[in-house]
Amino acid sequence: MNQPEPGTVVVTATGDGTYTQQVTTATHTLLVDEPVAVGGADAGPNPYELLLASLGSCTAITLRMYADRKGIPLTRATIRLRHDRIHAEDCERCETERGMLSRITREIELEGDLDDDQRARLMLIADKCPVHRTLSSEIAIETRETGR
């Protein structure tokens, strides 16, 4: 298979497992799968783990870029994320009032000789990473069949 152009991701079944998918970008290849408990081969992270990895890595990169640009002595940011579903009525800041909604919990550990103001600024910047903004905004997904 030819490598996709930059900015395009191609996902194709590997044929090695029930749910195992090969993800190909212009410069990288990785596997995505479901855990054995749900019929997969656990050959790679599951789709939600990849979603969390996208948000976590974008957050860490954004913090690093900001700290470098502003001369903040951040030595490391560690981001821990979880995804779950909650009842809408249990969410104080959500527009959805009924049913279930997704919740991502993000914990950020900042390391370095940081004062309280620097820590507070970095925590504000975390919410400005591009993936956070994408996930927090309305998303239009357009789907069409090709190859016929």
TrEMBL record:
Signal sequence, start to end: none
Native organism taxonomy: Bacteria, Bacillati, Actinomycetota, Actinomycetes, Pseudonocardiales
Pfam families: OsmC
Organism: Amycolatopsis vastitatis
Protein name listed in UniProt: Osmotically inducible protein C
